[in-house]
Structures are given as structure tokens and as C-alpha cells.
Amino acid sequence: MLDGRRRACLKAMGIDLWRTKSSGEGSAPALLDPVPLGSSAMPTGATKVEQPVVRTTAALDWDALEPTVASCRACGLHRTRTQTVFGVGDPQAALMIIGEAPGADEDRRGEPFVGRAGQLLTSMLAAIGLGREQVYIANIIKCRPPGNRDPHGEEADACQPFLQRQIELINPRLLLAVGRVSAQRLLGTQAPVGRLRGREHRFDPGDIPLLVTYHPAYLLRRPSEKAKVWQDLQSAHRLLHAQQSVPPAGAN
Ligand code: URA
Asked: How many CA atoms lie within 13 A of 44 on its CB side?
């Protein structure tokens, strides 16, 4: 039985449990076999650019990584940021959530997902019984792109060692990519979120299970997609607890 708090969270997300269950949408989608990934490999013949940050970042521990990010000037975004947005949560979290980039609120506060979309993300997590402090939340890039434009490829490239090191240090049991930019970047694909969600991928390096769902900012524009996100969260909950005998989120 769902407790009152989770029901309230689902209500905040706009999820109508009765409707989704009776229409069959409340049940978690089957996770398909892992698909081969890594299509982002550099084309043959391309010149490999040596980036010193890659070599040094891979050796950093938590204490050294955050100040390194804070002083980064590897791309032009350092000129317009208020501050870097490193990440927040439990450095030993089983679930790591990866969004796109800080927005205005995050740039001001130095913490990911604290604006309207972030509040929805927090409600979504609560719906599967997780507080923000129990997961780790980070972004593909650590500085706000001006005007909230999509990050450029070279900006994401410059930030990649930082995210990679965060993933290595956390070593989560599950990655959840929220939104197109995050999913496409982590999986090295151009496929839309609608085709990537609903099945288990693997993130390399590390062979870490990865699920994709819609970005909460998209849900604010398209609330009709919230039921799909609820399905994705149930899948995440099930994967996280696969080794334990806890009831699936939303089970009566
Ligand atoms: N959107 C994101 O992808 N990340 C944030 O931190 C905030 C909004």
C-alpha cells in the first residue's frame, strides 16, 4: 500500500494512480535486454586531441575534484557563470541522476535541480521513496549555458572528465539520464528520449545499468507525459531493489 506521503508526491507530479492503473499504464514496462552502446566512438582517421584535464581529473579524489571544477576555464562558459554547479547528494548513492546543465536558479545557488523542474524531480524521487540526500544529482555540464541554450558539443566534451570521475567515485548501481541531452550524451546516440526510455542500457566505461526518462522541465510543458515518467521511476525502483524483497513502488 502506498503511504500518504508518496500519494501526496504522486499527486504533486500530477499522476492519477487510479487512471494509470486501470488503463494499464501504471505497471512498469518490461526491461529489455541490454543493447550494445558506444556509438559515440571517434570516427576512424580522426585526430585524437590530448586534453591535460582528462589525465589529471581521472586521479582526483572527492576533495580535490570539486575545487578543480570550481576553477575550470576549459570552455567559454566560465565567462558567464555565477558559479559552477558540481553536484549534490550521497557520494555513495546507489542511484545517480544526470541532467543536462544548470539553469538560472542553479547558477545562482550552486546546486543542481533547485528550480521549478528541480522541485518536480524532488517530488518524483519522493514518489519512489527517495530523498534528494539519498541519491546523487549531477549534470552533463557544470556551468550554465547563457539563456538556457543546449550545451555545445565542445562544452560537454570539456566537462566530460569531471562527470566521468564523479561516476567512478560514486560507482552507482543505476544511472538515470533525465532528458534528451543527458541521454544522448551518455549513450552516444541521437535517438530521441521516446525511443530510449522503457529499456535498460549500459553505460560505458563501467558497464553500469542506465535508464532514460523525460526531463522534468519537459513534463512541466507536457504534463500528459507524467505517467510515462512514473513507469520509468518504477523501473528504476525495481532495478535498485532487484536483490532485495521490497514491494515495487505503487504496489497495493
Ligand atoms: N535542468 C537540468 O538539466 N539540470 C539542472 O540542474 C537544472 C535544470
From this structure: 0
Q: Locate all alpha helices (DSSP H) within the chain, ordered by sequence.
A: 4-13, 17-22, 52-57, 62-70, 104-109, 116-127, 153-170, 180-187, 193-196, 216-221, 226-240
Which residues approach ligand 1 with their CB closer than 6 A? Answer: 99-103, 106, 112-113, 117-118, 139, 179, 217
pLDDT (tens digit, 9 = 90+) per residue, 18-61?
A: 443 333 333 322 222 222 223 333 344 455 554 555 458 999 99
Distance 178 CA to ligand 1 centre (A): 9
The CATH number given to whatever domain includes residue 201 is: 3.40.470.10
**Tell me, what's the pLDDT at 76?**
97
CA 21–ligand 1 middle distance (angstroms):
30
- Number of structural domains, the chain? 1
Residue 122 lies in a domain: yes
CA of 47 to the centre of ligand 1 (A): 32
Strand partners, 97: 137, 176
Q: State which of 82, 97, 100, 116 you would mutate to test the pocket of ligand 1, scoring each by most atoms of that ligand within 8 A of its C-beta.
A: 100
User: Which residues span the domain enclosing 195?
Assistant: 47-244
For residue range 191-231, list pLDDT tens digits in order. Answer: 999 999 999 999 999 999 999 999 999 999 999 999 999 99
Residue 134 falls inside a structural domain: yes
